[in-house]
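Write out this protein's structure.
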Amino acid sequence: MPETWRYRGQTISGEQVVFLREFIAARPDSSRWKLSRQLCEALGWKQANGALRDVVCRGLLLLLERAGEIALPPVRRHIAGQCRNARLRPAPFLIDTAPLAMPLSALGGIEIQPVRRTADEPLFNSLMEQYHYLGYEQPVGEHLKYLVWARGVTRPVAALAWSSSPRHLGARDRYIGWSPQARRQNLHLIAYNTRFLILPWVQVPHLASHILGRMAARIPADWQAQYAHPIYLLETFVDPERFRGTCYLAANWKVLGETTGRGKADLTHRPNRSIKQVLALPLHRRFRELLSGGAR
C-alpha cells in the first residue's frame, strides 16, 4: 500500500486508511451515502457555510475502494444519470429566438439573476447545453449560476457559470506570488468563470463587457452569502483559436499567460489539449496579501 494517497488536494495517510476500515466495519448497517455523512461529521469535514463535504468524501471512499484499500457496503440503488457517461442531458426549452439587435442603451437595462437551486436552473442548463460550444457540465464543489435578462424585452440574453478554481495554474500562481502552502489554504478565495454565453441571436455591442463589469460588482456578496467566505480574484480561460477575449479585456481583466495544455490527470508531461490564455480580475486592492496568507 502507498504511504499516502492524494485526493482533491488532500493527503490521506496509511494510518487514516486503517481508521477508515475500522470506521466502516463498526457501521455494518450504514449505506454508502450515510457512511460518507457520518465520516464527515466524525472528521469535521464541512464547508465554510457548515454544509457537510459529503460529495468529496464519497469520491475519496470510491477511490480507495477501487484501489482495494477499503470495502464499502454494496450499492443499494442506482441513480439514473449518476455516472458521467450516462448522465441525462438537459432537455431543450422553447424560448423566443428572434434576432435581438440594438444598441446597449436601447436594451432597457439588464437583470442578473442567480438561478442555482431555483425554478429557472433547468433553463440555464438547457441554454448552456444547446448554445455553448462546450455544452453543459454539472459543476462539483462551490459554484453559482446566473441568467442575464434584458428588462426591455423580458427574455434571457446571456448566462454565466462560476465554480471553484483549478488547483494548479502556473500563470495565476506566479501572478499572485503565493507559496504552495498559501495556495492550498486559500484557493477557495478565487472564483473561476467556467462558462460565459451570449445567446447567438443577441447582437448588442458592448453587452458582454457590461455584464462582466456588473458581475464583478455583485459576485463577492453572492459568494459570501452562499458559502460564508469572501473571494478576492476572478479567473477564466480563453481559447485563442476561437476567441480574442475582447470583452474580458474591455472589462479590465488581465492576461496572465497561457496554460500548459495538460489536464489535471496528465502523466506524460506533454500537451494533450488546446493551450488557452489565462485571464484574471482582482476584486480587492490587497488581493495578493490576502491570498498569500492574510485572508480572514
